[in-house]
Protein 1
Amino acid sequence: MMDWLGMPVAASAHAGDVDRLMVLVHWLMLVLFVGWGGFLLYVLVRFRRSAQPVAMHKGMRGSWSTWIEGGILTAEVILLAFFSIPTWSARVDAFPSEQQSTVVRVVAEQYAWNVHYPGPDGLFGRTDLALLGPSNPLGLDRSDPAGRDDITTINQMHFPVDRPVIVHLSSKDMIHSFALPQMRVKQDAIPGLAQPVWFTPTTTGQWEIACSQLCGLGHYRMRGFYTVESTAEYEAWLAEEAAFLLEQ
Amino acid sequence: MTAIPYTTDVRPDTGVTNPKLGMWLFLASEVMLFGSLLSAYVLLRSGALTWPDQSAVLSVPLATVNTVILIASSVTMLRAWTALTAGNMRQYRVRMGVTLVLGAVFLAIKTFEYSDKFAHGLGPATDNFLGLYFVLTGVHVLHLAGGMLVNAFLLGPGARMWRSDPRRFTQRVEVAAIYWHFVDAVWLVLFVVLYLL
Amino acid sequence: MRFFKYLVSTDHKVIGLLYAGTSLCFLLIGFALVLVMRWQLAYPGEPVPLVGGLFGVANAPGGIVLPEFYNQLGAMHGTIMVFLGVVPLAVGAFGNYLVPLQVGAHDMAFPRLNLGSYWFYLAGGLVMLASFFVTGGAANNGWTSYAPLSDLAPGHGQTLWLVGMGLIIVSSLLGAINVITTIVQLRAPGLTWFRLPFFVWAQFITSFLLLLAFPALQAAAILQGMDRLVGTSFFLPSGLAVSGQALNVAGGGSALLWQHLFWFLAHPEVYVLILPALGIVAEVIANNTRKPLWGYRSMVYSVFVLGFLSFIVWAHHMFLTGMGTTISAFFQATTMIISIPSVIILSALMLSLYGGSIRFTTPMLFALGFLPMFGIGGLTGLPLGLATTDVPLHDTTYVVGHFHYLVAPGTLFALFAGIYYWFPLATGRMMNDLLGRVHFVGSLVCMNLIFMPMFVQGLAGVNRRLWDGGEQYAHAQSVLSLNVTMSMAAFGLAFFQLFFMVNLFMSLRGGRVVGANPWQATTLEWSTESSVRAYRDPYVYSLPGAAADFVPQDQPAEPS
Ligand code: HEM
Ligand SMILES: [Cu+2]
Ligand SMILES: [Cu+2]
């Protein structure tokens, strides 16, 4: 009963929690809508003028509407307290340790995702606004020892499966929004703010990164790609990128 | 056309006249306007890495003088109104005139402060503190100037109403005074926030 | 010459009608803009038929809508619909025309201010329209104008947007002061607070929202204007680089400051869009069921609670800007709580039908259509108000579907109901019933065909504000063809609005002439007395033992 909403494949560890709540809410909505709709139809037929020439001045008696309102409030409180808040808290309060995760920087700009892997040393090189250039959109300082082995790509991300990923998100210019629909991840990339976001991919596949916040005329084409693959394949990709870096 | 009720008479069950209620409502929205600008100030200042020493950038003595001037003008404005309630038009003219002059002195000092900043190469684009300083005091100055226009009207052509409808005229002055006190109060807040804190 | 006289009249009825005429024009313009967008969404990159040549090479070379132009259309559709269409119609027109009448006053408390508020509105609207013709065209940063995008947008479109908004805000503030003062001060003798029609209550709270929320946007507009014109950095953080160039500004600003100020206005604004609609629907339902509203008092209390709570939910639009658990929990909780008074009002309106003797007149059809449509809009707000489910849905077409169910088949239907219902009050003539019914059925079907598929697309992850409707994205492919369905339905909707327009103009001249109280209503706007006094509650219908099935509020008690 999970997929009647037609959401994209759920491919991360927390996607199930998000989808469960999504389904529950939609069931609640459906029940309420069918209930109200049924009532509305019944009343319209039963109390049409020809069936009820004279209206009842007093109208409906009883307090069951209060009960329904109380019921809705209870349902909402349950959804909030037992589903939404815990899932949210797990996303923003319980970050995994960087040692046990794949750590990436993503710097959004009109209209591309600049991706920055720390390379074998696990350290991100220094970046500087003054170094920005067409071939160095991140402004990465290659003379910094930590930056020598860093791997950078544009619009391409790779993650090993079943290992947490931490993305340090930021933006150079406008507000963008970094969405990985299959991971149930979406986070605004706001200039001036560091926005970390994490998830654990659980299914391999190739999907797309979508910019979800209007960021200018090219917003519609601010599309990237991400691949979730086995650790071996991921290592191979890293090695390939590192070799490519050496050639230059 | 029938006259609109409660323009000069107090409605018994609400206890106000229409213009007075209108003015209070207007001031409620003004509170929200200045409140929004001030909350922008709070948010920007608390998020800033560096913030200049405000009292070093701005001239506290000049602002103190201006504060005294505005408070004095609030007093004269109030006394202008009490003169009317006592039926003394001549006294009203003097006191309203003083109120206007005090407002003008405030504006003159403010103009000097602004031009002094510009002369030292400081403008709204220098940093966010100066930006906020110019916006907040600028919006306040516009309010003050608007109030002076109304006061000038009530001193000049508007005063003719004293002969035709003294009660209504007195109430107009009262409503204008409420506004004037508000503008004064806003300045006090700005003085504390921009110069002293 | 006579027309000119109307433009300077201080009579609330004339001003109300001016507002009505102007805002209906703006609704039409806003709708026309979105039809162009819908064409582009269904057939991306194909020249717009018929009118494509009119937009100029800068916007649509060869009739093909450019992305820049698409964004202008989107931003201006939202702005025009909200600020120049629906609010002026709901508050400016209906409020102006009916509030004084329903409280038994001769005019608004400040007639000249009232005229001033119309002029500010018109000026704001004209500035907005003019902005299409400056270099770079109109504002194209969404109706939300998020900074830094709007701060740094080239051209003058965004600046004119700020000026236009400034004028509209002044207009709304003047209008709000007037409506509140009129209700507080000019209530007819005997018209105590709990004898006010629900419509008046709705206008009362709406005006408070306008009065207290709009200044936040005014402040924001001043700050953004400074950023754009004087070079301040209120919304520009340090270290920005645009198109690979470091930006030469002082920096130190905050991009989120704009969002806070904007949504502090804009959430109450959505209640400004729906409260008057609820008020209209309540009037029409009471009249067409021939019975009092069920739970009138609880409705009034709910409106108060709604108005108050609407000031503390704004950040539910900002869940994805990096919010911690506590703050997100607070805004989720307020959002869930605010749904309760809405549910109470909607339930009361539904329960009011029970026991009625329902007349399916044209206004009643629109009012009845409003109920389930508004319900869908409200219900789909739940997953958006829970931060966890907002993650996949935020900024997708699901959101667009959600708020349109509230404002299009929701508020617009209520406004149509109001127009059909009060047309005889303004003109002494009825609108044509058959045309009205066709208008209703056609609109109901088309509205659902336009907005229902948006939920399907949104759940599939299709983002909003995409020039090509999501064509490039793999996850959009399975639901892409719905774009054509929605666009066809939008053109169908346009077709059915012709029935309304023809009806409106024909009935002005040729509608059936009716007496003073054709709906046999109870509230004071139908009274023909020159000075009225209220003797009873607003909706005394079908009182057992009474001579007629309605007892007007101003009918003196029978001497017994
Ligand atoms: C009845 C016919 C209407 C249709 C067919 C329609 C359709 C649309 C469409 C297709 C979008 C663009 C979504 C996108 O860019 O992805 C949109 C956006 C919007 N509409 Fe409407 N709409 C209608 C009426 C209204 C009304 C009555 C209001 C307000 C009272 C309204 C307010 C908005 C707003 C605020 C936006 C967002 C604009 C933005 O992206 O900045 N619409 N509408
Ligand atoms: Cu983007
Ligand atoms: Cu909201």
Protein 2
Amino acid sequence: MKLELRGITKRFGALTANDAISLTVEPGEIHALLGENGAGKSTLMNVLYGLYQADEGSILLDGVEQHFAGPGDAMRAGIGMVHQHFMLIPVFTVAENVMLGHEQTKAIGRLDLAAARARVREISDRFGFDVDPDARVEDLPVGVQQRVEIIKALSRDAKVLVFDEPTAVLTPQETDELIAIMRQLKAAGTSIVFITHKLREVRAVADRVTVIRLGKVVGEADPQSTNAELASLMVGRSVELTVQKEPAKPGDEALVVRNVSVLDPNGQKVVNNVSFEVRRGEILAIAGVQGNGQTEITEALLGLQPHVSGEILLDGKSLIGLPVRKVLDAGVGFVPEDRTEDGLVAEFTIAENLMLNRSTGEPFVKGGTLQLGYLNEFAEQKRKEFDIRTQSVQSHVGRLSGGNQQKVVLARELSRDLRLFVAAQPTRGLDVGSIEFVHTRIVQSRDAGIPVIVVSTELDEVVALADRIAVMYRGSIVGIVPGDTPRDVLGLMMAGEKPTEVAA
Amino acid sequence: MTAVAATRAPEPALEREAVRSWKVPIALAIFTLVALVLFVALGRDGTSTFRLSTEADAFRLPDLALPTRAGCIVLTVLMAAITAYSVVRSRAARKTPLWLIALFGVLFVVAFLTWASAGAAVPVPGLLVGTLGLSVPLIFGALGGVIGERVGVVNVAIEGQLLAGAFASAVVASVTRQPLIGLIGAMVAGMLVSFVLAAFAIKYLVDQVIVGVVLNVLVTGITSFFFSKVLTPNASVLNSPPKFSRIEIPVLSDIPIIGPALFRQTIIVYVMYVAVALVWFFLFKTRWGLRLRSVGEHPQAADTVGINVARTRFWNVSLAGAIAGFGGAYLTLGAVGSFNKEMTAGAGFIALAAVIFGRWDPLRATLAALLFGFAQNLQNVLSIIGSPVPSEFMLMLPYVVTIVAVAGLVGQSRAPAASGKPYIKS
Ligand SMILES: Nc1ncnc2c1ncn2[C@@H]1O[C@H](COP(=O)(O)OP(=O)(O)OP(=O)(O)O)[C@@H](O)[C@H]1O
Ligand SMILES: [Mg+2]
């Protein structure tokens, strides 16, 4: 089906998120949509999907103008969408999620679960997924949840499919699988809109590329353009795609982790006897496929895990068993892996979020009252320093685009007096410009003599930042190798293979 | 076509290590200790009689007589044994099975009854009949609460819905002389209360708990006002509804002990059995239920598959109100026979507790409501046979059971994720 968007304008109050955007997607075409965080890509797709009503403009399918009052209409017209933030009911099974909204029923309205299971299996088989229709979605790893989203969109036989940043949470292998699926769909005549921040993926599948900046189309690009060309078109300036960093000058040992194990509430050993140390002024990257204990080890550092054994010493003082407040006071800065869930309070303003973990005393609180004047001044200053794109520091954090939310978390953590900085997935979902910024700030903290731990599932990021790399597999550290270890060795280690020549 | 291989070799299970939890053994130990002090150390002499049948029964079972002190000691020893077993389980990092905890509860109650009825007789069938009677409004209220919370609206207004139902059914049935029409009146009244809740909570996004509380006060005020100014002066016309008569189900009602309680009841109670089963069935087995639950868990996700969140919430909250209102009718048409000022006496709040204790499941909420009804009735029965416990303490019993149950035993159950949260569409 041919999709045309003509002059779509969408305003949120004073903000114009989409400004007269026109876009054409031919049948059987993969059309990549590129743009910075907050450029308005998701908004445009939500308009197409009927979730938002456009203020101006029209949507045409095969030349016929459409009026969508809600997603139901859009789906009936043949539009499917894989949302940036999963739209799955966590407590439902895969089959229930897939059937929701177009359930087949038996007599007296009974759900035909067997039919739904069969449908899930059929689509899984067609694309080579391995998804259990009866698994509860919340028990599934994010990569599999992403597949469920895809199955959900496919189960309605969509003719136009929108993938809104599906690869942000996928491993490289999963991404390759998804790319193969997109090619398959394309061959079957489906039109696809593909949103991503990873330029490698654009080059791999896109037939055409449209770039959006600040709500406007700034032009089309050739899918085979170099990273640098695409990046500068997106951001409007040239972007450093590799971090400039001097070799590390490691100082004393600051953090010592010895024989640490973490049990989950079911008694499963999710971190198994892990030991490492981080020196002042160096970046230790913890690499590994999502779900191999990285999350738990960072949470254990911060005091968020209940069952931790072993030793964690920061500057000689033990952190184990301390409440989070004490750990923060000891100078640990933490960027959690899921910023919306653990890093920010969406309903609070940007200014309030910037002081979230400093509410116990001066300078933000005096005599039990908030120092609003000071807070606003501070927030304004951080907004400039970290280039947080917002209309005002008094707007709710939940309204910011992903990249800007991440900057708020970073600004909060990096403006404290740190003795250790732990950043988990610091650039997940960020655009190239923001990634450049975040990486620069992390390297700056290192150069200021702070020991830094970066947890990332993204090999590019690991290689770009790390002075040393610890690879985790199934709760254990496979090995700790120098920062310049070749990628294929790292890849093998991530699959659990011990490195042959372990460097000191 | 190129199929993509996504299967990976099955991996060995991660290493396991025990996480011990001492919550259950500690709770059991405390209760065993209470039993030891109360039933054994402060034990009483005499014989405790449990009367298992009434004169009306077809098959009459003989009375069960126990020597009080010896009976209490045996029961306490059994409780101590369960506690010890639970300690052993916890030390091995295993859970104590639920049925064992339930058995412990039963033993405790029997021990308590034995101790309290020294030298007297406990009418067991009467205890059960009374339990069911007191539970009926709680169960209907809890069903209304379950539906409300499952669709994402906290129904704090159950109390108001019950009261409105009681009031409307009394007036309508008195005027029409038809109790069945009174039932319809009760449902409409409960639904009207729900409309207000739904309109404010869903359309105007006012905090649901606040609207609910205000509605309860409002309904109490309005019905009390009309009761004293209109109903009381015209009691014969407006407040003397015909009551439903009891219908005996042949055979079933002759089952010893439980038969009379369950199957010698008014139509309202039979409707209740059906309602509990239907709500469970529809909630978990049908399209309606799937959509309802999706809206209560993740309204935005429901929206993206074309489900109208506001409409789903509005109509289901209204249905919840109708069900609760129906339960209110039991108070007037099934039990008392006329409307009384504030006659629900907090049943709506206990029903809300049953919703939580029952983990938002209609069947479990029903069991919870029965437990609360039992506690309430125990207090009545014991005050009649003259228990050694001061009556003020007995009056606390239902509420203590509620608090212990909800705070102590619910554990880590999860409410529907979007319960109480308004859904704002951009
Ligand atoms: N519901 C909303 N209300 C107000 N403003 C909004 C809303 N949704 C998005 N915005 C604003 O609209 C702009 C575009 O947001 P959008 O989510 O479309 O960006 P995006 O291009 O998808 O970014 P990202 O790459 O981070 O996903 C942002 O400035 C955002 O803050
Ligand atoms: Mg987006």
